[in-house]
C-alpha cells in the first residue's frame, strides 16, 4: 500500500496555519495534489516525499493513498486567474524566497511581518501589492502566473495547495462543482461529470468572462483619472 502525508487541517488560529504552511513549504517539491474526499468531507493537501525526508508529525499525518485516490483532485484552469488578479491576499514565506529568481522580486521592499510559532520565527512577505490587490507574480495579459515558467514547486506553497474547489478530475474524467448541499451536519459540495464538449464551453465562457472583467477594470481606472 502506498503511504503519503497529508497536511493537517487549518484552524482559526493564524499562527497554527502559518506553521502548517511553513512545514509544507519545506517539502513542497513532493506535493502530489489537493483532493476532496466526499466520505470524509475534507480537503487533503497530499505529499509523497522520498524515503528519509524529514516530515513534521506536528504538521502532517501519514495516510494510505487508497483513502484519497477515489476523491476529486482539484485542478486550476489555465487563464482563469480569479485567485490572483484582484484581492488575492497572496503571500510567500521566508523559507520559500530562495526558490524565486532574484530578478522577479525585491523581497526586502515588500510589506512583511514575523510570527513566533513553535520556537521558530516565520517571516511572511505580502505579494498582493499590485493594482486591486493583484499578486505581483500574476501576468494579467497572459492570464497566468510568472512562476509557471519555472518548476511548479517554486510557487508559494499556499498557491500550490489552495483551490477554489470548482474544477476537479477523477479517474481521468473532468468534473465541475454545481452546488452545495446540507446533509444535516455539514455543507457538502456536489460535483457533476462533464463531457469534453461541455468542458470546452466552460473554457470559452471563462475566457469571455475574464475579458469582460479586465475591460471593466480598465474602464474604471481610466474613469477615475
Q: What are the main properties of this structure?
A:
225 residues; alpha+beta; 3-stranded antiparallel β-sheet; globular
Give a verbal description of the structure:
- With 225 residues, the protein is α+β, with helices and mostly antiparallel strands.
- The protein has helices at residues 14-26, 66-69, 157-161, 196-223, and strands at 3-7, 31-37, 42-47, 60-64, 72-74, 91-93, 112-117, 120-126, 138-139, 144-145, 167-170, 173-182, 187-194.
- It contains 4 helices and 13 strands.
- Strands 4-1-3-2-5-11-12-13 form an 8-stranded antiparallel sheet. Strands 6-8-7 form a 3-stranded antiparallel sheet, with helices on one face. A two-stranded antiparallel ribbon has the order 9-10.
Low-confidence stretches: 221-225
Helix content: 10-25%
Shape: globular
The largest sheet has its strands arranged as 4-1-3-2-5-11-12-13
For the biggest sheet, the summary is: 8 strands, antiparallel
Would you report the number of β strands?
Answer: 13
Number of helices: 4
| Beta fraction | 25-35%
The total number of structural domains is 1
SS class = alpha+beta
How big is the Rg?
Answer: 19 Å
Distance between the termini: 62 Å
Order of SSEs, N→C? EHEEEHEEEEEEHEEEH
Average pLDDT metric = 90
Secondary-structure map:
Blueprint (H helix, E strand, L loop, with lengths): L2 E5 L6 H13 L4 E7 L4 E6 L12 E5 L1 H4 L2 E3 L16 E3 L18 E6 L2 E7 L11 E2 L4 E2 L11 H5 L5 E4 L2 E10 L4 E8 L1 H28 L2
Antiparallel strand pairs: 1-3, 1-4, 2-3, 2-5, 5-11, 6-8, 7-8, 9-10, 11-12, 12-13
